[in-house]
Amino acid sequence: MDKLRDFCGVFGIYSKPNSKSDVAYTTYRGLFALQHRGQECAGIAVNDCGVISTCKGTGLVSEVISESDIKKLSGHAAIGHVLYSMHGKPSQQDAQPLTFRHGKGNMALGFNGSITNAKKLREELCGKGAIFQSKNHSEVIAYLIAQERLRCGSIEEAVKNAMKRLEGAYSLLVLSPTKLVAARDKNGFRPLCMGSLNGDVLFSSESCAIDSVGGDFVRDIMPGEIVCVTENGIKSDTAYDGRKTSQCIFELIYFARPDSVLDNVSISMARQAAGKRLAVEHPADADIVIGVPDSGIEAAVGYSRQSGIPYGIGLIKNRYVGRTFISHTQGRREQAVKLKLNPLRKNIEGKKVVLVDDSIVRGTTCKRIVSLLRDAGALEVHMRVSAPPFINPCYFGTDIPSRDILIAHSLTVEEIRDEIGADSLGYLSVCGLSDVAAGSSLGFCEGCFTGNYPISGGENE
Amino acid sequence: MDKLRDFCGVFGIYSKPNSKSDVAYTTYRGLFALQHRGQECAGIAVNDCGVISTCKGTGLVSEVISESDIKKLSGHAAIGHVLYSMHGKPSQQDAQPLTFRHGKGNMALGFNGSITNAKKLREELCGKGAIFQSKNHSEVIAYLIAQERLRCGSIEEAVKNAMKRLEGAYSLLVLSPTKLVAARDKNGFRPLCMGSLNGDVLFSSESCAIDSVGGDFVRDIMPGEIVCVTENGIKSDTAYDGRKTSQCIFELIYFARPDSVLDNVSISMARQAAGKRLAVEHPADADIVIGVPDSGIEAAVGYSRQSGIPYGIGLIKNRYVGRTFISHTQGRREQAVKLKLNPLRKNIEGKKVVLVDDSIVRGTTCKRIVSLLRDAGALEVHMRVSAPPFINPCYFGTDIPSRDILIAHSLTVEEIRDEIGADSLGYLSVCGLSDVAAGSSLGFCEGCFTGNYPISGGENE
Amino acid sequence: MDKLRDFCGVFGIYSKPNSKSDVAYTTYRGLFALQHRGQECAGIAVNDCGVISTCKGTGLVSEVISESDIKKLSGHAAIGHVLYSMHGKPSQQDAQPLTFRHGKGNMALGFNGSITNAKKLREELCGKGAIFQSKNHSEVIAYLIAQERLRCGSIEEAVKNAMKRLEGAYSLLVLSPTKLVAARDKNGFRPLCMGSLNGDVLFSSESCAIDSVGGDFVRDIMPGEIVCVTENGIKSDTAYDGRKTSQCIFELIYFARPDSVLDNVSISMARQAAGKRLAVEHPADADIVIGVPDSGIEAAVGYSRQSGIPYGIGLIKNRYVGRTFISHTQGRREQAVKLKLNPLRKNIEGKKVVLVDDSIVRGTTCKRIVSLLRDAGALEVHMRVSAPPFINPCYFGTDIPSRDILIAHSLTVEEIRDEIGADSLGYLSVCGLSDVAAGSSLGFCEGCFTGNYPISGGENE
Amino acid sequence: MDKLRDFCGVFGIYSKPNSKSDVAYTTYRGLFALQHRGQECAGIAVNDCGVISTCKGTGLVSEVISESDIKKLSGHAAIGHVLYSMHGKPSQQDAQPLTFRHGKGNMALGFNGSITNAKKLREELCGKGAIFQSKNHSEVIAYLIAQERLRCGSIEEAVKNAMKRLEGAYSLLVLSPTKLVAARDKNGFRPLCMGSLNGDVLFSSESCAIDSVGGDFVRDIMPGEIVCVTENGIKSDTAYDGRKTSQCIFELIYFARPDSVLDNVSISMARQAAGKRLAVEHPADADIVIGVPDSGIEAAVGYSRQSGIPYGIGLIKNRYVGRTFISHTQGRREQAVKLKLNPLRKNIEGKKVVLVDDSIVRGTTCKRIVSLLRDAGALEVHMRVSAPPFINPCYFGTDIPSRDILIAHSLTVEEIRDEIGADSLGYLSVCGLSDVAAGSSLGFCEGCFTGNYPISGGENE
Known about the structure:
Four copies of one chain form a homotetramer. Chain A has helices at 23-33, 61-64, 67-72, 118-127, 138-151, 155-165, 207-212, 249-255, 267-281, 297-307, 333-340, 345-348, 364-375, 407-410, 413-420, 433-436, 447-450, and strands at residues 9-14, 41-48, 51-58, 77-83, 98-102, 105-115, 168-175, 180-184, 193-197, 200-204, 216-220, 225-230, 233-238, 247-248, 261-262, 265-266, 288-291, 315-317, 341-343, 352-357, 380-385, 424-427, 444-445. By secondary structure, chain A is α+β, with helices and mostly antiparallel strands. A seven-stranded antiparallel sheet of chain A has the order 3-2-4-1-10-9-11. A six-stranded antiparallel sheet of chain A has the order 5-6-7-8-12-13, covered by helices on one side. In chain A, strands 17-20-21-22 form a four-stranded parallel sheet, sandwiched between helices. In chain A, a hairpin with a 2-residue loop joins strand 5 and strand 6 (105-115).
């Protein structure tokens, strides 16, 4: 069974029974604000006094859920999910929330992350007669909660007990007939926060979704914390076992939306700080600083601020190219870069350019962008990367391709510079990540850069 | 959890590995021939040397499975399913075959019928930690087989053991990485037969599908029989426990296609025999015998043959009206009858007409047809029904609406005659069913007519 | 420009302004009853006090027009169209009604038939600056009416003048801001009749649609007649020039629905009469008469009545196969026959069978059916065709393939019998057609059988 | 007949017959780069040695044209079109290119702009028997070219003669069996340029599309110029009549993509120049300059450069919200702004902010953005608009809503400031537009700001 890790987003809302809140529509809007976390499946489950209904499928939120679907999903609590799949096109079966009936009732579950001991757990469960209808980890979590629920008095306790058996990265929302439970893995790999909206309780992978639905940010869920919302209020419990926390540094560098604040860190500020530090570590004699849209813009602004070199717009991104077949056809990839990014000749011509991006993976796209800039008249191109070189796999949900195709795995910085055709190349140092993460209430996992992982991921499938 | 009984159809094919048979395409054609058994979901699962792939969804076979889907489903064994749902619109989740992984491998399962102890089994399974993602009975069967498989040495043995715990009506096809298993419930409620095609083994709910794909009928699967096909040939075993068999009489009267032969009974002949017996039991002084298309045609031909009254065509059915929204809108039902059936005035005008159909449920459609015929100039309308009055519910997969709306439950034959506005009305007697079933190798369940059920159905949900 | 002849169906309704009639929904139902006349495009145009709105596209009525479309199409008069295209898949551009603005207002037009001087007219119009956006004949008619309208005082007069320039077969409905005009070609090739429904005026290609919407048949439109309906009532005028009328005999034999009555002829009766005459012309020593469903059923009943040989059901047609890809794939045609028709072995076995159909075109399907019957145990197969041999092309809208592939064009009856493998073969004689057409108020075109055409079609594209 | 002005984009390519160029695919990619000019319809027409095929419909390029469509569209010359409709949802009928047959052959036509004498021309044409199947101006142009073609020897001459009768704004591509003709209106309202790609000739509304397909910019088409490309090369002719040229200033301010260069003006530079001038005309005492994404970004960068106030990112735009139903529901508009734009609190909090956008139309969106910034902690908000106030309608294709809802039409600048809640408000002066247009080879139409129109538009519908 191939692995299907889930780097995704979750959103939830609990309103009191008989409230006038349109919980499905709020969830729908919340999912839009989290759409960048997954474009392959979307779904909403709504609890209407014990009856849980679901609308889910493959595609963008706007493709999967229609206005009439929203109208049908009435209720007083809801959870939603957007899915990003790392391997192959997901099927209808992979869409979350997963809705199911267990020994003590029914439940819906939305989950974001990757369970590192999923294979072992699945084997154990199968050994006792379980069946698995999909390859994703949510069924594993569902079984654990269902089985714990038989043994203990409440759904939140069942979640807590299940968390003791789960290893890896996960943020979890569980909708039961009377409760909404939110939980975050003991390391705090994936973000999860709480908000409020006219007295309703909100949960979201990122704070930007709480802003977008018009709510107020309340606080982050702590690593290992289980928050349970009922008609009678909010209760918190914890499965935290004292371990060192390890938020995924990649959330700050790449995943999260710039307007989110995760565990006290403003993503925009973190990326600007990366750019500033980069300007200190790798200064350049140049006329203009430009960013690769959209991922390199914030760091470019930071680089400009620190270095005093003017910030400018050097590449225009076509907003419509995303879902065209061009981007999917292997042989036409070269054309896709041209279609996606066009240099602004008048801003580039005759100039020494600092080009900022957040990463170099294979090196091929970067090479083409450097070449585009030279064709547009750039005298020099100084590549700056606002993260250290990727050299290691991730076991916790980040889609890092096989080591062999990571350019930084096999080449030195100077060889990479030569390969991409830049005049100079500078990566942020691993030490420099401390500027990115400054102010965070958590520790960080930097395994993809350093190979030091906070927990074992070796038994993963 | 609401019940979702499955009156459906299954088709399967086993070809040796490395054969040139296009098993998916043969299954696709087989499902077309069984489309009358279920129009709400369709699906095919194909085994390609241990990898089982599925294509399924809601809608007709032609809507769910495209030519390009068929091309992708390569393999050497396949099972297919068409689903009829008795309650509400089924979701994607209800489509079969159900594909899953269990403790000893992976499996696909297609099932036709209704498990009468499903509720109890589901509770037992949940009590041990199982979760159920849908309301249909196939998940129950899947768990039983998966759990038995842990205890015994082969999939066919697991099926046999599971059958000991299942009560009710079911025909079952199971696709494992190396085998195709077919099984029929111990009473033989639902039909299942075996065929051959260029050395490949076929299974089908009805023989018409074996004909349609160009195969040869071999034999019926016996009640309680388990047939297992592997590379090494066909083996038969049985879970039959000596009970009295009870094929569903309604398969003969209504469900099956007229060109099928079920357990030695030609459906067309059975219906003609019903019409002949009806002519003896309820003769009429008339000029023409007509049938309500398509369900009453065969019995009308039989009535004509026996009575000597000429057979004629009196009502034309619109072949396109099926999937229009007209048929779904409550308030527009009256208009739907007109759109669906139009009398052939020139054949009817000035004549005394015998009108034959296979059933009267609510009586409303029948009333409108009688009225249509009178408007078209019929002097007299003598209604003849080729089955006894429906008065009882069915626990074994037949979609008989609640007793209260069954006209024969609350009115006498004379009152029904008055209600539908016919000049006379005659139902086939229960004794007369023996003519319908003449030659069958099995006993019959006539519970819907008599209230005498072969097994208990009382604990059903 | 390739020809795209239109053998299609039209339906229209005129209700007074401010009436409560749902004219779009009535038209929708009318089109369902005419769906057999064209399955490739469908459309409805509605006049709401001068504003004409249209919903049209490629596909079946149920695919093109949704319930919400119907709700949007409010108004007091409407016309609808179903299109059958003889050459290739039609595009959106070919769907009718054609809605356009001309020198004196706006108009919608639905047309059924084939204009034999279309090429010449199109060239004339282009020579004066016209442009043509499609290949179908409706644009030609639209231009003629638009140009005549500039010269004369009313739309009905414009239609009349246009008819003087049009040659060929056509039934025409024109919707103007205040009128509904119906017209039929001077030969009366294509059918068109008038009905009434609660005071509203109906027009339809066939009477079955008037029945189906619950209306009353009033009368046929006469060849060359123009009927104009306004708020003030119905007026009739004529462009008839005394020529011999020539209804298409093929409407009786094949096109029309059996429950329609065209120009005094009941289609069902006509086909039964053909079967009776056939029994006289070509008797057979046989045990059972069967028809090829659905086209040969009525004639088979007639043959049985005349000959005294019992009528029976020998072939079951799969109602779902129509829109599967199987039927479109050249290499899989043989399999398609099996999937579409299955013999009823128990009715056939050991019997001498008379097999009745309405035509033999290429001979391939017929050959396969004969073979199916023999495989099912028929002792003898006596093929009877309820029309004379096809040997000539049609210029008036009937889709007769190129002469070269017409089996009757190159082979004698005995050679055809040998080719299809029947024990005997008999076609209806040309003289026999008089029985089919008995009682008609019109003359007939039998050009496809005799080569004698009522008007020249030679200049057609 | 309601007006349907076309602010759209065109792209064309001419390759020699038997070339290996994939002209449809190049056009497809060109349309992607022009997608911002129209998202409501898309289409491509391809000429394959005289046979012109079309694929078009409603929606984005990626929705209308599939990879398999592109494969079917083989040929050596092509034109493409994206449509923006100002009034209501366009229908299939409005999609361009318009393909038609005329007196001397066949032709496809793609057109961008608005014909101010369309009503008069349409009436004249109808008076001579023309019919119009849509409301758009392309049919008018088609008739004129078709009619001129009857009188003169070539398609390019016909285009030239037609241009003498057309008033208004238009860029035009015409595909004939042997030629590709490009023409630009005599005032030069709408842009059109020429490029080359491996020896093939390209035309495009904007230079960004030439870049995007990998081509080289050659030159702009001059006002009134007709360029005709054949197998034998490129010929230029002109219908220019000496009038003052008047490029639409709004193309520079809003329509065109920043990476385009129109008539010697770099759009990005023009917008930065507007920002710089704005900083001179309306300085502010502030801590940060932010732009409303995406329309105000370039001007904000210019303002920052000129003023020395640091540029920053203050608002994050959700890239996925575009096609959700939220944006279409009137009552939910307020929620849509929140969903679309989220302030970056950490960049805004405690700061005096200069907010730059390119326009204020109704004022409602602007008011909400100012309020969002204040909620995010901005101490002061200084609104700066990089264009003069809109106060007049446009007759040449710009979608300016009715004067009554233009806030600048009824309120003074101080009243607008008060209404939107800003601390100060400054618009670019009309004089300042000279900085925007600096270097252009053409004059400009600034009618929407000044009410001085270069030609009469009063007779427009």
